[in-house]
Specification:
heterodimer, A: 310 residues, mainly alpha, 67% helix, B: four-stranded mixed β-sheet, two-stranded antiparallel ribbon, globular
Amino acid sequence: MLELLSTRQNPMVDPLLHVWGWEIPVYLFLGGWVAGCMVISGWLLRRERATGGASVLGVLPWAGLVLISAGMLALFLDLEHKLYVWRIYLAFEPTSPMSWGAWILLLVYPVLALTGLVTLRASSVTRWPALASLRSALDRPAALRVLGLAGIVGGIGLGIYTGILLSSLGARPLWASGVLGPLFLVSGLSTGAAFAHMVARDAGERATLLRSDNLFLLIELVLIVLFLISLATAGEAQAQAAGLLLGGPYTAVFWVLVVGLGLLLPLALQTLMVSHRIGHTLVAPVLVMGGGLALRFVLVAAGQASAWPS
Amino acid sequence: MARLGMVIDTRKCVGCMDCVVACKTENGVPDGHCRDWIAKRLEGQMPDLRLTITSERCNHCDDPPCVSCCPTGASHVHDFGRVVLVDHDKCIGCKACLASCPYGARFIHPEGYADKCNFCLHRVEKGMNPACVDVCPTRCMTFGDLEDPLSAVSRLIASRRHFVLKPEAGTRPRVVYLE
């Protein structure tokens, strides 16, 4: 028997760490979503300029700009020393994923804005000569390929960083897994693909995005299994942390909301959609997006509940 | 370069909390918060019980995760004695350091920045001990340079069985407890 008594009662730290509420999971979700939008836009930009005016390429970069701004607002709301927020851009700390993320976020804006600009019709920017000349300079095959690559690389960086951000905080055994980076990236890609096929108007493009989303969901399932195996077979602290999702207090919410409703059900629905046994429905992509949000909420909350044994 | 550390004799500590009161007074720690605290571990089965009392605080780790995760450089290792400090004017209150500390040694000051034990640097720089060390009625705490093999802390560690908290977290803490 071990009974531990402590006189410490610091807010947000005792009895269990609870420094991050809704803001961080929402930010991580939106960041992943934007990462998905960037990678898909970049890929579409490199593959073909657009399928007339109907491509999702006309929607994704603008949606990305709105979403990343909402995400950064959530991040700002989480800060306790808000007036000092500018300090983050006076430093680059190479060992801090949060510092990497702050700078990545600054790069996300121009890439999304330029991708959005190039998808506009030339006639719609004639009133602003500077924008029009920038647009025509970008609207060349070589420039589009570079911009597309910037979107893919930037999106992958953004998606992975949202996972590494947690896994670098070694004091929380649940997060101490390198799988978290790729898991959050693929979850972001599936969220982005779900959003894209939800808003797609071109049938061919929608079918491609639907198939991509199914692939991302499958990879996400595999990564979740690998994540749990890597924890459960590591040391005592990680095994206890994995127990939070395997019989512990977060089991039901994780398996029902994240895996069941967020992965397996939409995967089944979207597989039927691909083979045209059911028509396209909004239910599946909404479930995928809900699953992505639930994944962040569960992992942020359960991670804070995990600790090295005293 | 000095590596300041603390050695605490668990056979002498009675858990009187004088160190906690001294710290709050010396450093003006706000109500409802503490930079140091007392933990009591009761192990075994009745009637064979063992009680270990520890006065705990920031361990000023040699490999501090709170410093490596800080996005602004607010959490840093100070040149003087490699004490781990927080620069309040650089801290944005992101709480990554709170999440990264295996000891729960940090908290958010009501003014918004991360706060924790600083080994009473203002006293130590004048050649004094941290307030908690000086006030202890059983003299269970010793403070000094772990790098100097002839210092009181180094000789206590060399001559007595000792342990650190959560060594498996890999942070190499510099608050050492004598068994």
